[in-house]
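Appendix B. Raw example, untouched.
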Amino acid sequence: MSRAAFHLTSNQFTKSKQYEQYTKLFECDGVREISLREPKTRNSLSLSMMEEIMQHLCAEWHNKNLRCIIISSTGPVWSAGHDLKEISPECGVEQQTLVFEKLAKLVENIRRAPVPVIAKVNGIVAAGGVQLVASCDMVVCTEKSHFMTPSANIGVFASTPAVIMSRLMPHNKCLDMLLTGHPITAQDALKYGLVSRVVSEPDLDKEMEKIIISIKSKSRAVLALGKEFFYKQLELPLEQAYRQAIKKMIENLNLADSHEGIRSFMEKRKPNWSHM
């Protein structure tokens, strides 16, 4: 799959792209890309934007042809976070709660998705945008990308982004970002566990292609089982996590695709996955 075949100029994508008010959806060969398309608001996570992302994210999870989901954006700012017009004091507590619960529900569904969800970042990510990016299963960004949580500058501590950031990053570096609002570079984000991979801007599509090929070479059922358990075991004490992991390994070994994978290895051939 070449860059031209994968990205937005593809004829296949053109046949299956959907235009929405705030996003574009591209579907091709098992890959779903949700692209934030509201550069005039710096791709702010308005209720309408988050609802569109949610609808695209959660569509047809049962379809075994779906292999991964990418969340990307256009413009120099990947996302500036929440729309301040929707959370100002004049909006009231009910509206403010609705906004924060919407993003919380969105990131919960990223975890629940049976396929890998990958953030593709090429630009500045701020506040709630950091929360969304950091909640993805993988984050691939360019060297020019930066990450920041500057809301304390306007009297609002980034408590919701802090939930996921504190689970990925060393606490002192996490608090450095939250307390000062200073941005960190892509390389620092990689160093401190906020992103998975950093590449040059020209190599971003090539890196995404490499990841997608690797994911699609594996059993969807196995990756779904593994992803679900990965997040569940994070909340368990170590001994209990190991006990549950043993049970999950046995469950995995009894999948049809596990039988096929082991047979194909012994027979020195490529596996023929049923994704079951």
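End of appendix B.
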